[in-house]
Amino acid sequence: MRTTAILPVKSFSAAKQRLRDDLRPERRQELVEAMFTDVLMALRATTADLIVVVTGFPAARQIAAEHGAQVVEDRETGHNDAATIGIRAALAAGAERALLVPGDCPAVDPREVDELLGRPATAPSVLIVPDRHGTGTNALLLTPPDALEPSFGPGSCQRHVEHAQARGVQAEVVEVSSLALDIDTPEDLDALAAQPESGGRTGRLLTKC
Question: Kind of pairing, strands 137-143 and 97-100?
Answer without folding.
Answer: antiparallel
